[in-house]
Structure formats: C-alpha cells, structure tokens
Amino acid sequence: MSSAVLSTSAAQSRPFVFQTENEAEVCPQIELFSEARPLQRVVPTTFPGAFNFKDAKLASVTSASRLAVRPAPEMVSTGIAVMDALTGGLPRGCLTEICGPASSGRSTLMLSALSAATRRGEYCAVVDASDSLDPPSLAAAGIELDRLLWVRCGENSREAEHRLEQLLRTTDLLLESGGFGMIALDLGDVPPQAARRIPLATWFRFRRAVEPTPTVLLAVERQSIAGSCSSLLIKLASLKLNAPENKASPTPTHAQLLTEVEITAELVRSRMDRKPVRSAEITFTSKTAWAG
Predict the structure, then answer these.
(1) Domains, the chain
(2) Which of these, 156, 181, 209, 284, has the minimum number of CB atoms within 10 Å of its CB?
C-alpha cells in the first residue's frame, strides 16, 4: 500500500494522508451487462413453538364450497289461485309489499291472505295505521275473528307522524313476541310523503327480526317504501269498474254501487329464486260482499 502526503497553506504542518492503492471502493461500478442468475427462494426460519398468524387467519376462513346455502322460504297461499300462480304464494320469514292506488285491490288481497291464514289455524295481526278496517268486511271475507288481533293506531290521533310512530312500535312488539302466522301493516291510507319518513334502517330491522320466524310480514301501501328490504313486491291497479245496470236511469248519477272490480297484478320483484324474475301480470276480479 502506498500513500501520498498533501499539505496546504491553510493547514501547515498537518498533512492529510490518502490511500491510493488497494482501497475498497465505496460506490462500486454497476455492471450493466451481467450474467443472469437464477432467482433463489427465501424460506423464513421459525423457532420451535412460534405462533404463525397467517396460518391462524386462513384456518378461520370458511371456503366458498363449504358455505351453507340458505334454504328457500316456505310459501303459503294468498287465497287467490291466479296470484299464487304468479308469485308462488307469500314467503314466511320475509317482508312482502303490496302497493297500488285507491280501489286497486290492496285490501282485497290482504283480507284474502288473512282469511287463508286463519283457516289454516294461524293467529294473525293487523296494524291499522288509519283506523279504516271494517269488521263486517273481515267476516264477509271469511276471516275467523277469534284468531285476529286488530291494532288501531289512528283512533286517538289525526297526525300521520304519531300514527306511524305507533305502527312501528307495535310492529316491533309483535315481531318480538312471536306466535303470529301473519302480521299485516295497513298503510294504504297514509300519504306517501308521510310513509317515506320511515327510515330504511327500520325496514331492515323488521326484515332481520322476521327472518328466523314462520311469520309472513305484509306491508300494504300506496307506493313501495321498503326498498330492497322486501323479498316480494306486488303492484296492483284497477283495470275496470263494473256497476249494476239501471235501465230506468242509464246515465250514472253522482253515486254508484260497484258490484265488482277487475284488478291487474304485476310482479315487480321476487327474491325467491336466484335468477331475476321478469315482470309478469295477471288479472282477477274482486266482488263486493253484497253483490251476491
């Protein structure tokens, strides 16, 4: 090894010594073209008794092939044959929406479903938000009244907000108590603006509460308000209103007695099948109790 001595005027008698040969390079030259080397796999070493967090996480994950498929819900009859052919019936443990304007057959379908449920020996409940249910119409529809609980939410209040609050509290209690084959929420006479104030989280809570039960949760409304929380959505509309013929006075007066209503039903949404259900329509007739 050789060395060179360098002195400057700023540092007299204090020489600086630099190694000039056999000095290790601080920044060695990078070979641009070098022979390719095979990649080597680095295997981490573990000591005996070490806990492998990665293996523990993988062990807690269930593979997709082992996931249990939720069985299809049991379907019950609506009491109307053509409606059962369209929807397959009403699903237990699910929320079903029936929507449509006035005189579209909402009450007819609800009463028919309640009648079929009570004939099966089930106890049912109707939460009436507007106090508009007519007991003689219940009996005429074939509903066994000793198996029906009628909750009148609008008896002492005219405010829609207060009636909705009573309806939601009552529904929570009924779902929690259990034992009902069908719970019908009659919101048909509640304005859509007021009905939309029900939070979507409330409908989600109802859906989760009814899932493990054999109860059919039925919501009757003017417009759909539960969104994706409902498993079945049926839209009704009146197709034709029929009145008795009066030969003496062929011109209709300010009031007419209706004998039957032709109703069209559209299946808007159904989550019963994994494949999307295309829209389908049926038509059926609703007769008044006094038409014979």
Answers:
(1) 86-244+257-287 (3.40.50.300)
(2) 156
Q: Could you tell me if 236 and 99 are in contact, meaning their C-beta atoms sit under 8 angstroms apart?
A: yes
Segment 56-96, tens digit of pLDDT: 555 566 565 555 556 789 999 999 999 999 999 999 999 99
What are the start-end ranges of the H helices in 60-134?
81-87, 106-119
Residues 33, 37, 42, 43, Cα dihedral to 10°: 180
**CA distance linking residue 271 with residue 277, whole number of Å:** 8
**Rounded-to-integer distance, Cα 258 and Cα 291, Å:** 8
CA–CA distance, 188 with 198 (Å, rounded to integer) = 14
**Are 150 and 126 contacting, i.e. CB atoms less than 8 angstroms apart?**
yes
pLDDT at 199: 94
Prediction pTM value:
0.70
Q: What is the rounded CA–CA span in Å between residue 121 and residue 177?
A: 18
